[in-house]
Specification:
With about 110 residues, the protein is an alpha+beta fold. The chain has two helices and eight strands.
């Protein structure tokens, strides 16, 4: 599994948001909305995605993102990175269960 993740990240590193397939949920997120993530522990954070391929969180983390179809990959400036599936068709106010880029199941909402 680690080999697959490393291989996926190596491929994604050469892609930019303008050269990958679109996801309509990401279109909503880059339109000024945030992705609110709530962990089962009660902790939460909001991620704000910019159409330039960068993101920031309300707890001060920043980094870059790419998406190819439904595969969202993020590289955080602290050196951590990972990928997850971003469900298509989500809009402001909707909530769903997903995995964060580190494999933890969370509740996501577009705010």
């Amino acid at each position: 599994m680690v080999h697959k993740l490393v291989s996926a990240l190596a491929v994604v590193a050469f892609l930019t948001p303008s050269t990958v397939m679109a996801n309509d949920t990401m279109d909503v997120l880059t339109g000024g909305n945030g992705l609110y993530i709530e962990y089962d522990s009660g902790e939460s954070l909001t991620v704000y995605f910019d159409s330039s391929g960068t993101f920031s969180t309300d707890d001060g983390r920043t980094g870059t993102w790419t998406i190819d179809g439904d595969e969202l990959c993020q590289s955080v400036d602290d050196g951590s990175s990972g990928c997850t599936t971003l469900d298509p068709g989500m809009s402001v106010g909707q909530s769903w269960r997903m995995y964060d880029i580190f494999g933890t199941e969370v509740t996501a909402s577009i705010v």
